[in-house]
Amino acid sequence: MAIFPVSLYHKPPKTLPLPYAKYQGINIFARDWQGQLIGGQTRLDWDQNGRYRTWGKEDYGNPNKLPNNEQPLNIARPDELKTYTLGFCEGYLKSNIAAEKHQQVFVGAIGGNFLNCQEQLRKIKNAIKSGDFFSGIKPETLEAIIYIDAGDIVNSLSETSARKAPLGKLINKHKETEQLLTSLGFQVKFAYWEQIDKTANDCDELTPSKIAKIAYLEPDEFYKLAFKLRRQALANKTYFENKSYKADIILNQKYLDYQDFKSGQITFVKSPLGSGKTTNLVDWLDNDFALLEHPWHFLGYRNLLLHQICEKIPDLDHISQIRNSGCGGQAPLQVASPHQADGYRHHVALCVDSLKKILSSCFDQSIIIIDEVVSVIKHLLFSRTIKGKDRSDIIRLFITAINQADRVICLDANLQNLTVNFFRLICPNKTIVTVENQYQPELPKIRFYEGVKTYELADAGTRLYNPLVPRTKQAEKNLTEINQIQAELKTELKPLIDLLNSTKDQEEKDKIQVTINVINKKYNKLIKKVYKTKFAEIADAGTRIRNPLVPAQAGSFIRFG
């Protein structure tokens, strides 16, 4: 193809061949400061390995470069000029639109790469100083404003990039542009309109009201702001990444196949509440004969839950049961191999608080199961029940146990990357596998029946799936009393409200309203004295109900099914 420089406002010939004619899109010409066409781009209507195709003069040898090997800059002039300050932005199309919106001459570079256009920038500076650039007008100072794109400030956020380039790759590129323009004699500022996120508007998308509110910042002021915003964005990104859960394996099945969890692995399983992950794990431990060589250790943070697990697994004992049997005494407990005939069980459940009560060698080649692992780690690191030096010792013992184990299985319905990353940190030599089971079990239905009614009524409700509002005799009495108070209140207020509506004198209305307020207050006090009955929501196992509004006799018939 051939693109020939023509004077300003001169229409290119109709026979001018254009590149990429096989694509649907628009051609955008690049002009130098004199208005001559020196190159351009084709912007495709849809993305095909990028939406832009850059082109220039074939006569130059490289269709994308000028004879001096620079990328062509586009000098976009508005129909109406209101300032002699130059705007610098990325792209040809953007600079053309921005020039009209800001009524300012814009200089556009492909990819914002002004460093490869130094000779053209010097020509622009010389033309401004000579008066040729602004039709005979010589500005007293050379002023430039850099318009960064939305999202440039928080581009490529990561801890690694934050250490290597605190301002980020794109802001560093804008800084190089600022330093180049400063060396050429320009007084440079940055335009800032809170274009932090990628979803914000670029300079060519701003409305007049937004343009009027743009802040023009000195370079040092802008760099400090950009650094602060990047740190905040990185903190937010890290927080939400840690709160989320990224799974290597996504499943949608009722039962997990624990045989896939190999030796040398720490496997994290996120599975919904009630999906049977713990019960299925118990079956696997009971039936897989290859596991007989390995002791099991259930680690938790609440003895109540651990005792419940021990009830489900015949071969699993809580550490307190073993010590109370006289086998352990006060010395650290040695949990022996099943082949040693010393009378000790080799499957133990214990809180992480009790890790001092068991020899660390017991965890050699063991299988460690941590149910509700998120809560266990929070307890290990922050619980008030572990204090001072004990916490350091227990954390050290925990790390030793995890590293000595043959495999570790961590279960939780609310797993987060934060927990996974903690294990990555303490076990760098273990393989981490994350699993998410997206199977949704049918949740149990809970129905309440009036405890004061007959068993026949409860049975009928079960058959008909017609739950009744739970209510005790005391609750019925309270409700009756409250209804009676409300009826009396309504009776006493009715004549006053009628009088209030019919009275036109404002002073009299105010007196009536005061009387109504006094009566309302009196009856509200009476209602508050009545014992109100409320029922707590369904709680997790082991949760204590401390709501003072729940009466002792509130325990109605509860049916699961």
Summarize the structure.
This protein is of the alpha/beta class and 561 residues long. Helix content is 36%, strand content 16%.
The CATH architecture of the largest domain can be named as 3-Layer(aba) Sandwich
In the CATH scheme, the class of the largest domain would be: Alpha Beta
| Structural shape | flat
Please name the fourth-level CATH homologous superfamily of the largest domain. Answer: P-loop containing nucleotide triphosphate hydrolases
Alpha-carbon Rg, integer: 38 Å
List the uncertain runs.
1-10, 12-17, 336-345, 461-472, 531-561
Total number of helices: 15
Could you characterize what this model shows?
The N and C termini lie far apart (77 Å). The protein has 15 helices and 19 strands. The chain has 3 domains: 73-241, no CATH class; 249-437, Rossmann fold, CATH 3.40.50; 444-472 and 533-561, no CATH class. It has helices at residues 92-102, 118-130, 159-164, 169-183, 208-212, 219-243, 277-287, 303-312, 319-324, 373-382, 388-404, 417-426, 455-464, 473-502, 506-529, and strands spanning 25-31, 37-44, 52-55, 74-76, 86-90, 106-109, 143-147, 187-192, 215-217, 249-251, 265-270, 296-300, 317-318, 347-351, 367-371, 407-412, 431-437, 446-449, 557-560. A hairpin with a 5-residue loop joins strand 1 (25-31) and strand 2 (37-44). The model is unreliable at 1-10, 12-17, 336-345, 461-472 and 531-561 (pLDDT under 50). The protein has an 8-stranded parallel beta sheet, with helices on both faces. Helix 14 (473-502) runs antiparallel to helix 15 (506-529).
